[in-house]
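Good morning,

Attaching, inline, the backbone tokens for the sequence recovery test we're adding to the shared suite. The designed sequence is right after.
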């Protein structure tokens, strides 16, 4: 009965429009009161959930991403991407995909990615004769790659969500996300090209030449170096995964202030304020989810969910498909961090029971959450893209299928071909 109270109160609060963090916290309090337990349990679990040293990586990665966003790095990345593929049919769309991938590696946030690249590319694409729905779909789907990149704070959140369930290192997750991120980029390029050809978008002049490619690449290298610094630094043992986040902030300041000289004092203050706000929301969510997770473990939610799923089928590929479907549905209603924190304790034990490695499950989880970011009613990246493009969500959804198909194809490959996510981590064991 307590589990029913927990689930129904949480669902009811979400339907009423209460923010996710408060819905989780209030549902936990209601359950405690119904069960006759001390309310202090909720607050003890909240405080304990936030007192983890590894969480220091989250504010640093968020701050580094905001500095990159306000530091004008996107313009240089756009120039490099345009020099590579801007001349082919639908070239601006493909440039957009490559640019979003590169900036996603720098910022590590789909929302920052669509904000930075979208503000540059969507108006430019509309000016060049591309339809607004195409420009928005290309941008918002390409920006999702940021969730898998080494600078993504969501990797940290997943690693910490596995505490007490499985041993998952942040470094393994960082390596595991690289090939899926490249695969997702390829899928997005195919979708962008397919729609461009189908709609008959024109080519844009001739190839600018390898000299322009080299010059634009050198201009973007200082910004892109943050990914290399993180990977090389961790591999060489110079710093830990947590310390790499602080290093990313230092490098972002050096690049935007001393190299590009594009970060004004006003933009620096905006980056600080946005990073503080985002960090506060994420840490509050983490703390409250710890209390929520306590009740899920107490009332054996993972075991009961697993038993329900195995009653449908005991075949691994069917179980994995059901997990993907449920994660996608939940991701459309919950924020990415909330989905990770709530669903990992439920579905990771089930996936592991049927042979999926926890690191592979982490990448599957992140791709599902990324899909949710681009799906109403809580599709924040889609809302931002539509606001920039001056188009309604309904209009964008009418032409979204090719891009959904690209992401779904990537998700299925990562789910059923373990080597895609596990090959790189296996090289450094």
């Amino acid at each position: 009965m307590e589990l029913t109270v927990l689930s129904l109160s949480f669902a009811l609060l979400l339907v009423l429009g209460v923010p996710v963090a408060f819905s989780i916290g209030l549902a936990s309090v209601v359950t405690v009161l119904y069960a006759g337990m001390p309310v202090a349990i909720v607050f003890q679990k909240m405080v304990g959930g936030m007192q983890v040293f590894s969480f220091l990586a989250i504010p640093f990665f968020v701050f580094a991403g905001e500095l990159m966003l306000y530091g004008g790095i996107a313009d240089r990345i756009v120039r490099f991407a345009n020099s590579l593929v801007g001349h082919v049919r639908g070239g601006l769309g493909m440039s957009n995909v490559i640019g979003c991938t590169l900036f996603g590696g720098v910022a590590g946030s789909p929302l920052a990615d669509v904000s930075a690249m979208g503000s540059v590319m969507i108006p430019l694409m509309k000016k060049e004769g591309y339809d607004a729905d195409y420009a928005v779909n290309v941008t918002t789907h390409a920006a999702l790659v940021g969730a898998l990149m080494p600078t993504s704070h969501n990797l940290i959140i997943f690693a910490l969500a596995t505490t007490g369930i499985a041993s998952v290192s942040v470094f393994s997750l960082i390596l595991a996300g690289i090939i899926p991120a490249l695969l997702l980029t390829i899928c997005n390029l195919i979708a962008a090209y397919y729609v461009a050809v189908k709609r008959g978008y024109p080519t844009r002049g001739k190839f600018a030449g390898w000299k322009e490619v080299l010059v634009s690449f050198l201009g973007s290298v200082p910004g892109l170096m943050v990914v290399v610094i993180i990977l090389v630094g961790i591999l060489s043992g110079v710093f830990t995964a947590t310390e790499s986040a602080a290093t990313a902030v230092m490098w972002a300041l050096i690049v935007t202030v001393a190299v590009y000289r594009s970060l004004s004092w006003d933009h620096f203050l905006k980056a600080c304020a946005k990073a503080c706000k985002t960090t506060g929301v994420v840490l509050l969510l983490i703390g409250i989810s710890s209390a929520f997770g306590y009740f899920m473990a107490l009332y054996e939610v993972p075991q009961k969910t697993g038993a329900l799923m195995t009653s449908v089928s005991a075949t691994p590929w069917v179980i994995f498909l059901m997990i993907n479907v449920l994660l996608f549905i939940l991701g459309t209603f919950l924020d990415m961090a909330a989905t990770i924190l709530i669903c990992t304790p439920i579905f990771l034990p089930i996936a592991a029971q049927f042979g999926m490695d926890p690191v592979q499950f982490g990448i599957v989880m992140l791709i599902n959450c990324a899909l949710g970011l681009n799906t109403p009613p809580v599709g924040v990246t889609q809302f931002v893209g539509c606001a920039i493009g001056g188009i309604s969500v309904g209009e964008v959804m009418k032409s979204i299928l090719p891009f959904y198909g690209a992401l779904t194809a990537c998700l299925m490959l990562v789910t059923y071909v373990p080597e895609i996510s596990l090959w790189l981590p296996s090289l450094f064991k």
